[in-house]
Predict the 3D structure of the following.
Amino acid sequence: MGLLLSACHPTEVKEIWEDRYVEQPTDTLEVIDNWFLDTPQRVMPEAWGADAWQPMNLCLADGELFVADKQGRQLVVLDARNLTFLRSFSHGGRTEAHDVYVQGDWVFVATGTRCEVQVFERSSGAYLTRLGTGSYQGNVSKNACVAASDRWVFVRDSKAQNIRVFDRRLLSPNLENHNEVFARLDTKGFFIDSAEEPLAQSYDMEIVGDSLYAFLDAKGVICAYSLDEVEHRKDETRCVKTTLPKGCRVYAAAPDRAKQTVWLSLERDGNRHLAEFTYVDFWHRRFTAPLRTFASNDRHRFPARPMVAFADEQLYVLGNNRLDRWNLVNKPTYIIVPR
């Protein structure tokens, strides 16, 4: 009898050393930012031996805060970190300062009805020259606002109802006057309400990205001009005019170039706000979704028509003959949703 044999395959055993991980359900954590203005500090004129002052505008540059003091007929320079007095600029009793703009080592000071923009050397405070002639026959008359790039100086002239452009390449400390205007930027009939306004109120122009912005708050209008067009089109440079919604006015801008954001001083529905926007939202005039915003209230009342500067999470707010600085502090809320 034959014996039937069947072949048996051995069982294969494989050791698996890989980690076995099964994701466990966890709580959900939501973080909500709550930004506050905290630790206010006010600049007092006693710091430089004055009884009073009339700050009209400000410019922050490399840790120094330049403040246009109309009453003191001077430019006051403060250490932005600790708000201590550093030095002051003035020239011949004519520095009736309405606005200031720092670009490079030159400081430009608009002087209202003095019919000139004074130019100082930033490092030494030495007076260099002026735009205009100091009289109404010159090309600078009632000027309450000035801005500058590395190529141009922009002077907002309420008597002429336009923005005068001067070529910085032609400016020399060896000349007493610089009266040659490179271009006159149109404002499409929208300007301040009265030629007398520069005597009492503050105005702002600012360079953001590749354009100059003029805030004509009396009309609720923003005018924008391409810096490249100024070079080629001169007086024909296009004015991109934006009329803001009813009840909205923008008074001033402070770009944070490192973060590509812009802080705006604006009025909305009868209340004053300081708000931060992305460059993109600013360029498109979308002012409804700020990154951060603070409204004037009982805790911090903002002055009328506030001028602003911003650096290192600190806001400088100027108006009503006072200058305050606020720290921005975040006190986040944590919401835990159980698994």
Residues 171 and 178 are 7 Å apart (CA to CA).
